[in-house]
Amino acid sequence: MKLLFAAAEIFPYAKTGGLADVAQALPTTLAKEIDVLSVMPLYDFIDREKFALTAMNESFQITLGKDIYEISLFEGMNQGVRTLFVYEATLCHCITPYGNKNGDYLSNDIRFGIFSKTVVILAQMFEIDVLHLNDWHTALSALWAKEILPELHVIFTIHNLAFQGHFPRESMERLGLREHYFTPEGIEFWGGVNCMKAGIAYSDVVTTVSPTYAKEIMLPEFGCGLEGFIQVHSPKLHGILNGIDTVLFDPLIDPALPKNYGLEKFTNKKKNKILFCEEHGLRDVQKPLIVFIGRFTEQKGLDVIIEALPKLLTMKFNFAILGEGDEAMAETLKIASKNHDNFSIQFGYDESLSHRMYAAADLLLMPSRFEPCGLNQLISLRYGTIPIVNDVGGLHDSVRDIDDTDRSVCGQGIVLSKLSSNAIVRSVKRALQLFTSTKLFLKISKANMHCDVSFEESAKSYLKLYRKLV
Ligand code: GLC
What we know:
Elements: E1 2-6, H1 18-30, E2 35-41, E3 54-64, E4 67-78, E5 81-87, H2 89-92, E6 99-100, E7 103-104, H3 108-125, E8 130-134, H4 140-148, E9 153-158, E10 166-167, H5 171-174, E11 188-189, E12 192-194, H6 195-202, E13 205-208, H7 211-216, H8 227-232, E14 237-239, H9 267-279, E15 289-293, H10 302-312, E16 318-323, H11 327-339, E17 343-347, H12 351-360, E18 363-366, H13 376-382, E19 386-390, H14 393-398, E20 399-401, E21 411-416, H15 421-436, H16 438-450, H17 456-469
Parallel strand pairs: 1-2, 1-8, 2-5, 8-9, 9-13, 13-14, 15-16, 15-18, 16-17, 18-19, 19-21, 20-21
Antiparallel strand pairs: 3-4, 4-5, 6-7, 10-12, 11-12
Helix pairs in contact: 3-4, 4-6, 9-12, 10-11, 10-15
The site of alpha-D-glucopyranose has 14 residues, from helix 1.
């Protein structure tokens, strides 16, 4: 079986979120069983030399509406997976994949239209059996596959329903889409075009990244306006929990860590904490260290953390944040960190620093408002760092409360009863109390390191779905 896995971002070439990690880790795991090709755009900011990307001989044109686009192809190897890169100027001339400070690029309909149509041509060129699409950037491929290559089997994964690719009605013409798709059953949405709907409507199978999120997206609270539409397509919807690359995320060999550790050399974890606290001006290294790593968005519950911050910063622990996003949130955090020696903030996306923080921390705070899967809690389990999470989506499926005896979920942590600043303060209090029971805290941290957070099981579920299709 030959699989083509298409995504707008793949680690390490381009990453804005968990999609990139999954688009690296899942194909790597699948490649042990089947023939896998990955494909992504060759954005201008990708360093071709560093990643040893080479030009292929193939180049061709595609048409969208009245316009013709020149496509050239490049290739490289990513952890054993052959990866194709699509180059076209409109698509690739950018400094980040989706937008800049002023918001999303206005040409995103055309940019990802170009990518999506090219993906279908590549499926034809490389005699692909199953095309695996990810998120709205590739969703139009499902529609074009039905037209151009009806025998191709298509699976579409929703990583985050909050991003759907909404465009004005005029995009229909710009993309050269036939009018009959512009219906509520098709890709019409409040008078405009919704790319995500194409992925859901025209794929043979739809998956999302956790069983709980698969149920949640059929409810108004999480469905982002598509709950009814998803209910209609629910017979082909499956929830498969993500994993992480357990080689890239292994505290025993992780090159980013000053001190490597595993279950045996677990005392080294504390050395990482001491070094981190010293470097970031956090006083009293004996205190527990709690970290938050992620985008500054309401999805991640950072606004609620900010609400709880005045109380949190009076409590006996060190708090460190790494991330970027909403500027107002960033500003509030910056001011708070200037006034407190138990709070440090680092702005930006820094892969290596994030690894060091997972290793240094005693606890990870992740009170997401909604979380399709979430990878940080999985990384934290792998690094023996106890997660404090909200009870939603993939967090529900990967972390059970330490007082809960249900063994169906492997990881243990502190689960918020609901999302509120008071609930966060209460959970942190509980965590600090747990920290004083040194033996129990150590037992849970170590037990978490035993959990299987790899992609092996999930890859088996995807393989089953692919095999059913062909
Ligand atoms: C998105 C989701 C996140 C998920 C990731 C990978 O970033 O927000 O929950 O883990 O995609 O599927």
